[in-house]
Design a protein that fits this description.
Helix content of chain B: 10-25%
Helix content of chain A: 25-40%
Largest sheet of chain A: 6 strands, mixed
Largest interface: A-B, 65 and 53 residues
Oligomer: heterodimer
Order of helices and strands of chain B: HEEEEEEEEEE
Strand order of the largest sheet of chain A: 2-1-5-9-11-15
Strand content of chain A: 15-25%
Shape of chain A: globular
Shape of chain B: elongated
Number of strands of chain A: 16
Structural class of chain B: mainly beta
Amino acid sequence: MRKVPTITICLAAALAGAALSGCSNITASEAAKNRYAIVIGIAQYDTYYAEGANGSPNLTYPDEDAKDMAKLLDSKGWNVVSYLANGDAGAYTNSNGETVSPISATRDNIYNAISGLSTYIGSNTNATVLVYYSGHGDLNTNGEACIIPKDACSDTASVSFNESLYISAAKVSEWLGALSCKNKILILDSCYSGGFVDTGSSTDAIPSSYGILEGGTEASLLEAALGNFGTLLQNSIAANGDPDVLTITAAGSKEYSYDDSGHAHGAFTYYLLQAASSADSDGDGYVTATEAYAYAKKKIKSVWDANYTNNLSYWQWYLNLDSTNQVPDFMPHISGGTGDLVLYVNN
Amino acid sequence: MRSNCRTAKIIAVCLLLGALPILAFAQEAKATRVSTPLSFRADFSAAGLVVPSENDLDGRPLLAAAGLSLGLGVELRAGQWIPLRSQLSYYSTGRSAIDESLFLYRAFLGWRWALETGYGFKLGKLELDLLGGGAISASEYAGTALVSAYYSIVAEPRLLIPVQLKKVPGFAITASIPFEYMWRGSTRTFAAGLAAGVSIPLGKGAAK
């Protein structure tokens, strides 16, 4: 009897094993045992202005963003351990029937929430943490992208922010880096949030300020690759690991993100929430972070941005640029790396 | 520094493997003092692939994905030798299986250009070609605008099955098992599958 070569058996076994490896059918409640989320939304800053009032730095919808995101994550395989919000959105009822009231999103509370994740993670390096933020973002005097906690605004008639209380991208990276788990997701719906994104060995074909009257539109694969091929190949050869944190941001590093009064949410967060039910392209019960991002990006481009680029008012806007010289079209960004994480468990 | 040394070694091995058939062909031609006729063939093929990936540096497990590719190739033939084959492929790999911590590898797609060399063994009316070489690829993670480039080594045993067609003398159907090993940053990806296609001779008197 002829023997099948050993190498053939090994190869076939490896392929079969690899093909069959991986888990399916993890339910949301099972997933929540190892996945911990912090949700932050700041509409009301420490000024004497009312939420959303004209001339104030206060926003209208980030607190609703945070509340709805907390409720959604709670039902989609996450244990929401901290809910920090300032505004009038108030408490919500979680999947255990408990009332969860927000705590104030001060700088210290945000730090305590993130560092407190280590208590939940313990020694489980396969745990997953998620931090979601909706609120103001800014660039500090060093040009670094930052998020702005509630108490970074002076309690006077002035609308200026206290930069010393800003939380920079490097600081967030440091706080998350102190956690021992491998899986980390950061989602930001704020201005200049693209400054938090690490593209790893990839290049991002979306400019940092998107729009035909600003940084341009998205380059094609071949255009982006051929223009940078040597650098991209060198980056790949350098064999650095994937970025530590899988980051999704509403906007580029040089542009604003916006509240959408038509949907009573941040424009980006509205579609990110929708992605839970609309972005499961293969119907397997899981929506990955990349799938959710791709869905939100497509919607921002085809709905929000198209409203400006297909509209005469876009050109009127251009001719009457305001002092910020920003047209309200923008594009979400996501970090690089070969890896991805499930964001929503629908099972 | 270490990865550059490793890369240099890999490229050197590929060049050596690629040079061996050419050297052997030159030696044979010299020994027999017979001029071996040169010819060209073009081919088109489609492949279904199993594509497992692993990332030891980041402590990520081996997880498999499914993929497909479409390729267009041109090769120079000198008798049984194939001194040079160039193939341009479009490929698409789906997202991988999901591990217990709900980690997975992203779907990616893009273009690949491979240069190979090889030798064909006559098996009656059939021919078994053994091809090997290297490739460079440009890829994009599906649904994003993140563009990457990477290199890989490729190998492919390919069966040429001649089919008598009056209008296309030398026409053949191909069946092959493509293999590819990719260096994608710190992630290592291996692809293997089954491909089928067609091959036709190019130019006058090029029928095999």
